[in-house]
Every structure is written in C-alpha cells, then in structure tokens.
Predict the 3D structure of the following.
Amino acid sequence: MQTPYLPNTDADRQAMLKAIGVGTVDELFQDVPRQYLNVPFRLPSPLSELELKRELQQRAGRNASADKYACFLGAGFYHHFIPGVVGHIVGRSEFYTAYTPYQAEASQGTLQAIYEYQSMVCQLTGMEVSNAGLYDGSTATAEAALMACRITQKDKVAVLPSVSPKYVKVVQTYLGGRGFPLVKIAPDQSLPADCACLIVQQPNFFGYFEDLSALVRKAHDAGARLVAIADPVSLGLFRPPGEYGADIVVAEGQALGNPVSFGGPGLGIFACRKDYVRQMPGRIVGKTVDAEGNPGYVLTLSTREQHIRRERATSNITTNEALVALAATVYLAAMGKRGLRQVAELCYHKAHYAAKAISRLKGYLLASDKPFFKEFSVRCPAPPAAINKALYRQKIIGGLDISDTIEHGMLLCITEMNTKEEIDRLVGVLGEF
Amino acid sequence: MNPTEYKYTKDHEWLCPEPGGNARIGITDYAQSQLGDVVYLDLPAPGKQIEQSRKMGEIESVKAVSDLFAPASGKVIEINQNVINDPSLVNKDPYGEGWLVKIRLTKPAELDALMTSDDYDRLLGQGEK
Amino acid sequence: MRRHYLLPDISQPGKMGGTLPAIDVPYTELPGELLRADLALPEVSEVELVRYFLNLSQLNFGVDLGFYPLGSCTMKYSPKWHEDIARLAGFSSVHPYQPVESVQGILQLMHELQEYLAEITGMNAASLVPMAGAQGELANVLMIKAYHQSRRENRIRILVPDTAHGSNPATAAMCGYEVATVPSDQNGNVDFEVLDAMMDDKVAALTLTMPTTLGLFDPQIEAIDRLVHARGALLCGDGANLNSLLGKVKFGDLGFDCVQLNLHKTFSTPHGGGGPGSGPVGVKSVLTDFLPTPCVTRKAKKYVFATPPRSIGNLGVGYGNVGAIIKAYAYIRSLGAEGLREVSEDAVLSANYLKEKLKPDYHLPYDRPCMHEVVLSGKWQKAKGVKAFDIAKRLLDFGFHPPTIYFPLVVEEALMIEPTETESKATLDEFIEALKAIAREAEENPEILHSAPHTTPVRRLDEATAARKPDLGWHQKD
C-alpha cells in the first residue's frame, strides 16, 4: 500500500534488501519471537484525505464551540482573542517540524524565540529567571512545590483553600510519588515551621484577589517559600507576584495566544529568583557567542536535567510545550504592554458589568465583595446544573458548577470575547430562575 | 606530569599536605580532561567536616556532573574563591591555581592509604574506563 | 550578512501589533492599590513582528527542510492537513469543562483513539491523559507503585538497563524508588544472569525500552517476561521506539504490563521545537483500575468521563494534549493496520540499509540486524582526534541535521541514527555519502571537522561561557 508519507517504491525496497543481503524485510525481524510477529491488528480500514476530512469536519461540527455559543467558563482555561498573525507564525514548518534545539547551530530560530519568551515572562511576572516552559499550569505548580522542597530540604507543602482544587489534585499526585504531605491551611492560620512552601493563587480560583503581601510574610516568617499561581492576562494590569516578594511564580500560558483546545496543550509558565536557577526544572536558553564572536543562543545549565543527572535530576521532563510558548511569545509581542493592558481592562470592566447586573437579580448573591479581575463567584437561587441546562438551550455555556464549595455556587468568567449583548442575554436567562 | 609530592585517589582527586597539619585538595589533570569545560562547583563550606571517601560536593561541566569525594577526613578551612568565580582555572591549572578546598586534617594517618603519583600513573596506564 | 537583533531593539513606544474593540459596557473603578506601575514589554508593529519571526524561522532546520535522523526521536514527516483539522473551531474552541452533551464529537474521537492505541500496543486499556512521554512514564511508575501497595508489598526498587534514557531513572526517583542499573552484555542485550541476580522481592519493576536504545530487539524477551513476573514484579515498557514495531508486534504479547507512547514520535504529530508532545499509556488488566483520571467511556449511547476505581489521580487539569490527539487519530485512520505495518517495515529496512553501507567507515558495536535505528561509534575517528561532536557539526555543513550523539552511554562516541520511513532511498544515499566524506576528512583533514560547522547561521557556540555566566533574558540587569 503506497501512501503519500512513504517515499520509497518497491524498486527502492528491493535495492535496499539486496544491499543488506536479505530476501525479505521480515528477516530483519529475526530476533522477534515468531509467534508474535505479524499478528492481526483490528483497526478501521484506511480512508483518503477527502473522506477522512469530511468525517472529522462532521465530528467537529457536533461540538458546541465558542464561535457558535457564548461561553462564560473559565476556571483555568480561557477564551481570549488570538490575533491572526500568531497562527501564521506558529504555522511555519521551520518552527513546528524542528526538534528540541540540542544542535544549537541549526536551531537559532527556536532558541532565540525562547530567549524572548523567557525575557517577557520575567517582565510579566516580576521575577528574575524563567525556564522555557513546562507542560501546563498545574504541573508547573507541582514542580514548584518539589523545587521548594529541594531548596529548603523540607518535605511538607501547604496550600490555601482558595487555590484551584483541580490544581491541588495534580500537586497531590506529584507529592504523593515522593510521599510528601500536602496540608491545607486557612488564610488566618500561621504556617507550620516544617513547610517548604505555601501555594497561593492570584487572583484565586473563585476570582478574588488575595492579600499577597501578608501571604509572602506568612511564608517567609515560617522559613518557607511562596509559590504564586498567576493569571498571565491579569498581569497586563495588576502588580505581579514578583513585586510582592514571591519566590516562584507559575501560570497557565494557554491564555496567551493559544486556543482552549478542550484543555490541551497548555503551557506551564515557571519563573523564580535567580538564586534558585540551578534547582529550576525544565529547559533554559542562554545567550552566548560563537567562534567568530557573533551572538547566538544555546540550551544551558543542562546538568539539572534528566539526560545528564538521571535519577538526581530536578525533574524527568524532556519534551515540554515549545510551540505553545512560541505562540505566547508572538502574542505578547503583538499585544505589547498597551495591548495586554487593554485586554485586561476589557475583561475587568465587562466582568464587573456582569457581576453588577447579576447582583441585582432576585435570589442571586455575589460570593464576595473583594476585588476581582475577570472571574467571580455567585450563589444562585437554583442548582447551577439546572441553570446551565437552560443556558445551553439558549446557546450559552454557563459558568462552572462549584456547588461543592459554595451552595448553588457558579464560577463565571467574562473576557474580551464576550460582547455586552451576550452578557445581557446571560443575565436575562439567569433572571428566569 | 602528575606532581610527585601529591597523593592521589582512584576517583581522580589529589591531596597536597601543607605545613601545620593542613592539606589542599583538587582534581587531577585526567579528571578535568574527561569532564571538559568546568562550569560550576558545589564545594563544602568552611567549617564543614568531611570524611574520607564520602561525597563532599559536585563539579559540573557543560555536559556532565561528577561527585567530588574527600581524599581525607578533615575540617574545611578555605575554599578557593578564584575557581568559584572562574571555573576554567580547574581546566587550565588543575594542580595549581585550580585547587578546590583547604582542610585541617583530623586523621593524618589516612594519607598512608592514598596513592603515590607512580601508583596513580599506573592506574591511568591500565586503560581506565 | 545577517543582522542580529531582539524585540527590544526594534521596540518604540506607541507601536502596536494588534487591535481590540472599545469597551462596550459602563466603566467600573479600578482598584488603584493593586495596579502595576508599568509593564516593560516591547511594542512593535505587525510588519516588524512578522519579519522578525519569519527571519528567525529561516535560521531553523526542520523535518520539512531536510533529513533529521535523531535516534529515538522518530523525526518523521508530519502530514500537513492534520494541522488544519486540529484548528477547526469544533476542536480548538471547546472548553474542557463544558457539559459532555455539548462535546460528543470530540469525546467519540478520544474514545476511539483510546481503543486504537490499546489495540496497537496489545493492551487492555489506554489513557490519553499524560502530556508527554516523560509524563506517561510517570503514570506507569505511579500505577506500578499503587499496584504493589494494593497488595501490601513493600517493593523499593526499579531496575533500569544501562542503555536507558535518562527519563527512566529520573521518573523512578520522582516516585520515591531507588534505581539500580542492569548492565548490557557483549551482544547489546540485557545481561540476563545479572538481571536474574538483581531481580529479588524488593524490585517493583523492570523498565525496558523495546527495541532498546541501541536499536536492537532483545531476543531474551520471553525469558525476561517469565523472570520478572515469577519474582512478583511488573514489566514496564518504554515505547519510545514503537516505530519499529507498528502494525507488526504488540507490546502486550511480549509480556509488558504497561507501555507509554509518544504521539509526537511514532504517530507523526509535529515536534514543535520541543513540544507539545503527548504520552498516552496502555495497560494490561492488572493495572486498569489504577489509570490516571479521567478516561472517556461509553454509557448507553453517550460518551462520558469516568474515574478508574483506584486511580493514581490527576496528572493535569484537562484530558491530555487534545491537539496532538486529533492529529494522531487522523494518522491512524489514514493508514489502517496495513499502512502502520508498512511504516515499521520501511523504517527498519532503511536503518539496516544505513548500517550496511556505513559499517566499513564507522565502527559498528553490534553487528546484527538492527530495528528502526542503528548505533555507530566514532571510536576509529577518535583515534585520529576527531570526536562524535565534530562529526555532528560537520554534517550540518552537508545540509543534514546530525544524529543523536553520546547516547546511549554504553557506546563510545555514539552516533545514534534513526532515518524513519518517510525518507527516500535517494536521501539516505546522500547521507551515506556525506558520512563517508567526513570519515575521509577525519583521516586527511581533521582540522575542518574541529572547526565545523562553517555554513550554518552561527558557528560553533561557546556553551561553557553560557553555563558559567548565564544570560537568560534581555531583562537581566547584571
């Protein structure tokens, strides 16, 4: 069966077999136990590009995507505007068919772009060094916790209850591998002295701003590090955790120039103080010069990583999310300081408009009067599941059901993608309960 | 080649006894050539007690990391700040300017167990790994 | 002469690369004390932005430009139309926490891919959750740990061959296991006698890449399977080299209890310059209860999420790298069983062809049929003062990306070459000629190798200074 992806013809194959000195390709599989070779594989018959494309378009059409439905879901993944230029640059196959830039002389495009990424992440988060990115915000948080344990030589990790419960589950999985305990501490509780770090989220999972100064003090007073999970778009407007004294800042970078894509791929933004750089996981790009004195870029500080340090590595991570980081870099470059601030302001004002309108509805109560950015939590007069069903019938995807934490609670997210008309329609349906 | 007045270990470190019961420690020329360009050193801080044959620190090149083992037991009295600032000294002058730590020996008899430069030359000649 | 510059060099206040609508709702006062004073990001126009990144892209070498024979990376061609499909709004613009009724199309695709991957690997179930191969390995080791804990067995060690990829011991350590290394014998296989002696009741598992990172299929696999299971341990597969077995051999038949796959290697999803990847795992029924959560199941005629009864938990907050999942799905549906078999047959054929043609010029440590990759040694050239590093850099001058070098660690001056099935014989012949020419240069003109590369956008880079005095961003103040 000839396919477009197999450039050799039978004549080529015969020539190669002859050069090797065997009659059939199965002779090359001589070390495989005979009974396990060429067993049947039950898979659907192959389809041509035309047929398969039609089928996949149909399948895609059966999903309620944000171009057809107004979406008010956030909770870690966000619909933000992606300028068309991002897709075109990330769609260059010089970028996307390259491998990890181990051979630096053939990868200066990827390496220089990562250097820009690292620089912009540091500006955004107010931190001194950044890596090239990890898998996503949740695993970045887990890796930050493990890093804090290495730095402090302690093994207990503390987290506020206002941190995303989904993130906490992932941190639990990673800490569980090492047998390290995870403890929830209340905001007014002091931190036990055996904690390596305190994990906080800013704004928190429910949408509200924490008192980051107080939290940094609480952590440092107990000899622990402060790990802050940030919203990268909020950093276009709000003071970054670095300026409050956070030790490690992580974030989900999907919001910067990448589609929601049903939850993956994401991008684990990871930045920390420069004193900790040798404990930081993931790849790092550094600037240097070549043999003729010209500027160039290389992967550096590689002795932290698995291919050299093996079981003593900072992490097992190899492949990360380089193309997603490239999209984030192009997005940040396209938006610039003004554009990112504008995006953040649009989110802020629209979210507050929505919150005010909802708070005026009978039976609805805003869960907090603390400042918020683009998400907020509402106590509804009916179960959110029922409300979301009604919304879906009106081609609206409602907020996240958080009734396990707040009675009849819903977490709503408004971004620059939601028009006033959509928000008014949302409020209209909510008003029917 | 390898200084005859120094003592050696099978882990390619050297020890040079100094007056007053002290000793200087470093890695051999063979070790630095195997490592390649040294980029970072993790040395035991002054005041720390080190024990013969136990790990006392790490030395990193661009593509490798190696444990440093103490050739003898003692208390660290000085680390070579020059190599911290310029790790290439370890490659350029491993027996001189590239020394790593100075210790006060706590068990001087241990030095008898170390190799002479002839022993070490023989070890290298034996086709090391 | 190329001019080097960074974004701050072309940034000027007031430039903009994107447009946004005006605010269409009433203003709300901003909380002044929470606002940042400034954000020092570059400001550029779209024109300058595009030129900057397009020029950067020209400095890269990718599979779409030429041969990229990195061993164990499977740099095969990525079909272009898959990119368009992944970008359809119905796949890219859906939120993971939407009601399942609203995403049946994508859930069906994921469910079917779970089944295809289980079938391809000969396993009972598969999970698409891990976001890269290393995370797939983590899932495997966490499941193995949960398995032994459920049987109240205190097993503290994972065995790993000396040829293993560094991620294997790193993963074991992340799960709190000790790591012990099993040596290879003189044929490049696991030293069975030593393995037997090491395989005691404290061993949780043996992690085996199959074929090994030497590109060799270990013919002792049945005996290894019996030994590992007889001692109460599990056999954990590293499926990085699946490209040699696709459509021909099943990991499950060989005795493996679990295996992680790399969609960005075997299943043609693009490497992206270092990701996104995707590392699904396949498991036998002994481990299905422990799979990471969630998995996609069918209930009546609906696709829903389910949590395996004794799941190791969440490895992320989504369901895996859906972008890659869609592309891998399209790949499998385009090829079918027959097409997948041709992939592995052509991959193995090409690697053996390279082996035959190059063994007169480079030392071949194991002269036996290889699988999808061949490991040569540069030790003859080392005797002339030319290292694998120099050979790699010189290949760039010939227009080829170098193979993997210095891995696996058991081969001196290792050159690990994986052609993949998507290279024509003509390309292979050019590559052979280039390596033969380099071998001649090593004899006659080694200096040209020491100073290579000569024709790339930059010459050999100073990695020592980069590590000694790290410059990790233009924001850096020192």
Notes: The longest strand of chain B covers residues 55-61.
